[in-house]
Amino acid sequence: MKRYTLLAMAVFATHLAMAQQQVEVRITNLSPSGGTFLTPMWFGFHNGNFDMFSEGGAASAGVERIAEDGSAVALGTEFAASGQGSVAGLLNGIGPIAPGATTSRVVTLPNDPSSLYFSFMSMVIPSNDAFIGNDDARAHRLRNELGNWIGADFVVLGTGVLDAGTEVNDEIPINTAFLGQMSPNTGTPENGVVHRHPGFIAGGNILTNTQFRNADFTQPNYQVARITVTAVPEPASMIALGGAALALISRRRRK
Hints:
By secondary structure, the protein is α+β, with helices and mostly antiparallel strands. The chain has a single domain (about 20-235), classed as F-spondin domain (Immunoglobulin-like), CATH 2.60.40. The protein is about 20% helix and about 25% strand. The chain is built from four helices and eleven strands. The protein has helices at about 1-20, 60-70, 75-80, 235-255; strands spanning about 20-30, 35-40, 40-45, 85-90, 100-110, 115-125, 130-135, 150-155, 160-165, 195, 225-230. β6 and β7 form a beta hairpin. Residues about 5-15 and about 235-250 have low confidence and may be disordered.
């Protein structure tokens, strides 16, 4: 009886391992000391049809809330309502990601088309409404055409920093997150569209602050972040157990 129970458990474990994939999502803030911080990064896995925003188009409420205040609640709601994805979450949900800091999280994905693509978004701080994120919903495909895992590993440059077009870049401390803003959504509405961020104001309240002396992301080759999505290897014991189960099944069939 015990032998067959163990066999059943091994078969189930092997099937489950094939149906799911554990992955690690990781972000490193590559900005230099005195550079830009990042808010906790939102991420989502989807079928390639969850389009968060388009350059030249108006930002959604979810994009606006991340770009202005670093809050991912509204974007998470949009993701769930889209019906296009599987798993979403936050990296470093405690506080800002400082220059040089790394944070990661392991999640379990269904091994099916609902998790074929990866999207991300994070506010660049301090700023009025600067952020990083992928415009193209299919920019980061995690499996090739044969279904083999390829993951993602890319660097976001300063040229990739975007402006939500929702709040005027006045850099007034009470309007600017991480510079003096005390409550969300307090800046001057811009009523614009998503576009490449022009950079902080020369001589403005950000670049003249010694804490952000190296925050000019428009400088050549300025690196904002490195983001990776990698497969987490199955424990050796699980692989061995699954292999033993399949071998036993094969032997019993030959008898």
